[in-house]
Predict the 3D structure of the following.
Amino acid sequence: MSDWLSLLAEPFAYEYMIKAMALSSVVGGVCAFLSAYLMLKGWSLIGDALSHAVVPGVAIAYALGLPYAAGAFFAGLLAAMSILWVKSLTRLKEDAVIGFIFTAFFALGLFIISINPTSVNVQEIIFGNILSISDGDALQVAIIMALALLLLLIFWKDLLLVFFDEIHAKSVGLSPKVYKILFFSLLSACVVSALQTVGAILVIAMVIIPGATAYQLTDKFRPLIVIAGVIGVVTSGLGVYLSYFFDGATGGVIVCLQTILFILAFLFSPKFGVLTQKFRQKYHAKPPQPTL
């Protein structure tokens, strides 16, 4: 018995594992907070767009010898602002605008890399490096996440009103444009931080799956934020912990855990689970409808 406990406690004997679990949990929780708003607005694709749109910023930052997180943040923010600007000028649907912007940014990034191929550590961007993150980068991620969480806690009701009903938000004196800029600035910062945790390929999962899973479990926004946050924190920390024993990619383990929870909620959610609703229909009970 003591051998099993010693084995389970083994990851906590290493400072880099404790640091990785703590940082991943914080990043997962804040990304999950943002994912609740993306679910509300139906902007799930924008997380994918930002993860690709950071490529030119990363390439330019490497070329200039700057921290790649700085370049990624400004590229992601510029992409998000471009999406809002183009959408305000055209009648195109949001998915078309998002697809146009992120492919344009991604193409620009590939072009920059092609003319300066040795300047970018592509593997680090794609797969993340949370287990070998430096103290300086860890502090940077911690500060970004703390600031993002503080602003979300302060303005979560205003953001909810803007995302749910812009006309009503204007009538009470809120500026939808300002709050959208705030939200996408926070989203860009969190996407860049999540790049260091799970990499560019899986970052979309961090800002989508927790909110999507919580949406299967509740139709109230406040519980949705809480559930999504708990899922983000637990799966991210547990994913890093389990990756020690699997000797596998931490990002892959984290997203696999989140996917398993989504499938369970999708099938067995007390209100909206597919199998639960089939069971109700069998006994002629009317299934509840989402209200968000």
The chain has a mean pLDDT of 82. The radius of gyration is 20 Å. The first helix runs from residue 2 to 9. Residues 210 and 228 are 5 Å apart (CA to CA).
